[in-house]
Design a protein that fits this description.
single chain; about 500 residues; alpha+beta; three-stranded antiparallel sheet; 5 helices; 21 strands
Length: about 500
């Protein structure tokens, strides 16, 4: 996440004996993102030209079984072309308080209320698809009973020596028994095993389904014609039609326990507490002379928000899930009608334990992938410059550029007991990223009685627009944000 840039030329600190009440709101929306510098749909990671185990690892076992059945090592189930569009919006309201202990030292706190929502629209084109929903385990029972009877008969004939008179026939019988046993295991594991049965299987009319049925028919012919084992004439139940959108929804909800409805979440965000030290203040707030001032501040951002929900693809939480320590250095310079705010920030994101589904971005997995991991997010460094031009004594037009960069995350399992066999937890780590943001807005600053000889209620306010204009690496939302703020000051002593 980028560092929050200041939207006004209000001072960082608060005069001694003064209470500052701050109200701020923002609305961010995005339906596109940058990935390694290229702009794409926010739902691109959940799109596929031939949906299968590339996005749903649960189907990998079925791929392997079908590949052995039809003797095609590179086979992969094809559920159709999946195109996913997504629109995210995040509304945030802040309530903040700051108290000037002295003219140079300020303590402050902020608590946000966040509403986030991601709306998705997935289209599944079944042209070229070769798989649909498994008709169910119960319907496969007659076929496997028939298959088992044929295997038992063949095995009994071999044991009784029925083929001993002709060595070639016995060799054929032994090879056929081995083939039938392996075929039966793969078919049962694919279609009917309570643990391994695939939720989707080839359709009857597809090339793959035809190849599966031909393999069974060939075995039946060999048994009846060459080995005197008649009666095996049943066929398994394959899918009757390609998956389609309704079938995909059933697959996601029933087999992977994923939620597909667009349910927003409203909750508090990550609260902040901190202090600011004004180093130099030679700024005249009540005239056009400007001047120079600089301040340093530090804050702790607490994990009081809600993390993204693991059973909703592309979900956004209301908080980051870890404690952050942030340091900011701000300098304002101005003369006459012109000036600028220069700033730099460093955010140390501390490690935390989180529970999530361990899977690479864009893959859909079930709750069997839930695990606790120790995530150490990459630290963030940001610099920004915000030039302004005064339109009147209290109004100014302000522009801004901010560039931020984040290091790569480090992710390990919380403990050996939490580890998922064969799954590297680092696949959930966010890569290093960077982005440049542009902003524009207007500010209002009336020092009122905070200025020597002044009267009236001191007020700072601003309205601005921000957007990400480029990203060179990592995955960064191409967000548009409207932000407004209002600050009012009250004397305490």
């Amino acid at each position: 996440m980028p560092v929050r840039a200041g939207a006004q030329l209000a001072p960082v600190g608060v005069p001694g004996g003064t209470l500052r009440v701050e109200l701020e709101g923002s609305l961010a929306t995005f339906d596109r993102q940058f990935r390694n510098g290229e702009r794409e749909s926010y739902g691109a990671t959940l799109s596929s030209p031939a949906l299968g185990s590339d996005r749903i690892p649960l189907l990998a076992d079925a791929d392997q079984r079908i590949a052995r059945i039809i003797n095609n090592p590179g086979y992969r189930l094809n559920l159709g072309a999946l195109t996913t569009d997504a629109l995210a919006d995040v509304g945030t309201g802040f309530l903040g308080l700051g108290i000037g202990l002295t003219n140079r030292i300020t303590i402050f706190g902020r608590i946000p209320l966040v509403r986030s929502r991601v709306q998705t629209a997935a289209g599944l084109n079944s042209t070229g698809a070769d798989a649909g929903l498994n008709p169910g385990q119960a319907g496969q029972q007659p076929f496997f009973e028939n298959f088992d009877a044929a295997i038992a008969t063949l095995n009994g004939k071999l044991a009784a020596g029925d083929y001993n008179a002709d060595p070639s026939t016995r060799a054929l019988a032994e090879a056929t028994l081995a083939e039938a046993t392996a075929l039966r295991a793969d078919l049962f594991g694919l279609l009917a095993d309570p643990i391994t049965a695939s939720p989707v299987v080839p359709t009857n009319a597809s090339t793959t389904g035809t190849a599966v049925l031909e393999r069974i028919t060939s075995l039946q012919t060999t048994l009846a014609s060459n080995l005197s084992v008649p009666g095996f004439d049943a066929a398994p139940q394959l899918a009757t039609a390609p998956l389609g959108p309704d079938g995909l929804r059933q697959l996601l909800t029933s087999s992977l326990a994923l939620r597909t409805e667009d349910t927003p979440v409203s909750f508090r965000g990550d609260a902040e507490v901190g202090a600011a030290l004004t180093l130099v203040d030679r700024w005249d707030r009540g005239s056009r002379r400007g001047g120079f001032r600089t301040a340093i501040s530090g804050l702790i951002r607490l994990p009081t928000g809600a993390s993204e929900r693991s059973d909703r693809p592309l979900d956004l939480g209301t908080g980051e899930g870890q404690t952050d320590i942030q340091l900011d250095l701000v300098a304002d310079v101005g003369s006459g009608l012109f000036g600028a705010r220069l700033g730099g920030s460093y955010v140390r994101q501390l490690a935390s334990d989180v529970q999530l589904r361990v899977a690479a971005p864009g893959t859909l997995v079930g709750p069997e992938r839930l695990a606790f991991v120790r995530r150490d997010p990459g630290d963030i460094l940001a610099i920004n410059v915000q030039p302004f031009i005064r339109l009147a004594r209290t109004f100014a037009l302000q522009l801004g550029l901010q560039h931020w960069s984040r290091k790569v995350d480090q992710v390990v399992y919380r403990s050996p007991a939490d580890a998922l066999p064969g799954i590297d937890p680092s696949i959930v780590a966010e890569a290093a990223a960077n982005a440049t943001m542009f902003s524009a807005g207007v500010t209002y600053s009336n020092p009122g009685r905070l200025r020597q000889g002044g009267t009236g209620l001191p007020v700072d306010a601003g309205m601005g627009y921000e957007r990400v204009i480029r990203s060179g690496s990592g995955t960064v939302p191409n967000a548009h944000r409207v932000r407004g703020s209002f600050r009012v000051y009250f004397g305490l002593w």
